[in-house]
What does this fold into?
Amino acid sequence: MGAPSLKPSPSTPLGPRAWVAAALVLLAACQVAPPAQRVEGPAGAVRAASLARAEEVAGFLAELQPLVLAALPGARERSLEVWVQESPRLYRFAASGYSEADGFWAAGQGRIHLREGADSLQRTLAHEIVHADLDGPWQLLPGTVEEGLCDWVSALVCPEAAPRMRAGRLIAACFATGGMELGLDVVVPREVHRLGIDVGFSAEIVLHGGTPLALDPAQVFDVRAGLSSTTLSPEHKRAFYGLAYLLVDRIARRVGLEGLYGLCRRARAEGREEVPAEWLLAAADLHGTGREEWRAAVHAALGSEELEQLLRMYPDLVADTLQRIFRSRREELSGDPVAATFHARMGLRGAPEHVALNVVLR
It folds into this structure.
């Protein structure tokens, strides 16, 4: 790796400071090489494989940094460096919990790393800018709550990318608290029904996102899912991010980010190491960490916009359910359902919000 040997000579033993210095030299030698092109902007420097990409992201950085500072009480402005990489990495050989992330903030280097193919490069950048700009009392947020704050602010300053992110986080929170219960109402058109009239059917759909997680929501105050050293599975990381976003969303809608920052300042003034979970629960109008209450809170946060995003994430959800209905009720049909258009609506069971659909089977 081109690093000097760390083996001490018997006649010249290394002291503790020399060992630290040698270790830092080794770590620096093991870091990935910076992307080839560099662009300086008013908010900092951006490196990317192409000059065009570096210029584009420098423009994002210049636009987003002031928006984050304006939205975030107590934030500190700092000059940033951003690396856009095919896969965001800090070291050449070490694996980390960031292997599947779209970006991360390397506090020791003062640098943001972004994935070239991120779902939304702007929103990911905004999320990492929040990490970089947090200072003082904000650092007392416990567990994964800081990630929820970064998501919430990034959605605020990147509204075009907010619906997809919000839906993803809330759906992950649903999976973490026992799954999502949906209702599907379908009108089978008269041309394919044996009675020659429009007939309505209803079906229930329970989504678990694969293996049910059934997490204890209280863990969101203990587990730091955003650390590079985490050993959590991707599914568990998404679940904790979802719970953290739900918590911050409820707090921000009730007392604003100023109220959340006030809790951090109060905790620091009282000499606490972290903001107590009880304070955060009270600010979010949650009476505890029971799964059923958190599940109800997630369902209350999901609206028609998030349901539309759900259908984009699971495009075959409705069609597969209709196929199952028809297989079980085949004797009632007189025509080919593939030739008909079905009017349907889908929503959370027991909730008024729904999405209207016209479905054509193929």
Observations:
- Residues 28-134 form a domain with the Zincin-like fold (CATH 3.30.2010.30).
- Confidence is low (pLDDT under 50) at residues 1-12.
- The CA atoms of residues 60 and 127 lie 12 Å apart.
